């Protein structure tokens, strides 16, 4: 498990204002949502009331509303703002959706887990456009070794989750999300002056090569 460091989770453009989606990161089920004012949140995907997935809920202004009983949780701290069955009562301060550290940079939403502090991301704020994702049944070290063999360099050396410098496409940047113990999601981004009209071909190549490698161990 990666602690105290940012993990790239999902391209920013995939979570628009008013949207909420479910993702896995390091075996955690999380709800990623963006308020109507554009503030992105990463929460445990469980309502503290009846444990219904918050990703089934609806964004209303700066709050996320659970789909089951309509409990409403505030973006800034996850505190329950409203209980429809008890409209005249204020929810206790301890009643909160569990939130995780989150930031946005270089076109990605980053997950910081429970850490009180995450090291700064040594990435220049360069505009990138999304060029597709692929989820593979493989391990993170296998993906990292594969990229290294292609001659791509890790540009955030402390966690080896960001790679750039492909010989055939210098504008390409690769982000790795460890979703489960043996599952990795790979995101491709291109410098904004490039045109990403379809999924980058390297993703298809990685799927073919790494899945064949996995089969060779069976």
Characterization of this structure:
The protein has 218 residues and is mainly β. The protein folds into 2 domains: 7-112, Rieske [2Fe-2S] iron-sulphur domain (Rieske Iron-sulfur Protein), CATH 2.102.10; 129-212, TATA-Binding Protein. Helix content is 11%, strand content 39%. The protein has 2 helices and 15 strands. It has helices spanning 140-149, 201-215; strands spanning 7-11, 20-25, 28-34, 40-44, 58-60, 63-65, 72-74, 80-82, 99-105, 108-113, 128-136, 153-154, 162-166, 169-180, 183-191. The chain has a 6-stranded antiparallel sheet with strand order 1-10-9-4-3-2, with no helix packed on it. The protein has a 5-stranded antiparallel sheet with strand order 11-15-14-13-12, covered by helices on one side. The longest helix has 15 residues, at 201-215. It is elongated, with a radius of gyration of 19 Å. It starts with 6 loop residues before the first strand and ends with a helix.
Short description:
The chain has 218 residues and is mostly beta strands. The chain contains two helices and 15 strands.
Level-2 CATH architecture of the largest domain: 3-layer Sandwich
The CATH class name of the largest domain reads Mainly Beta
Strand content: 35-45%
Distance between the termini: 26 Å
The total count of strands amounts to 15
List the main descriptive attributes of the protein structure presented here.
single chain, five-stranded antiparallel sheet, mainly beta, 218 residues, Rieske Iron-sulfur Protein, 2 helices, TATA-Binding Protein
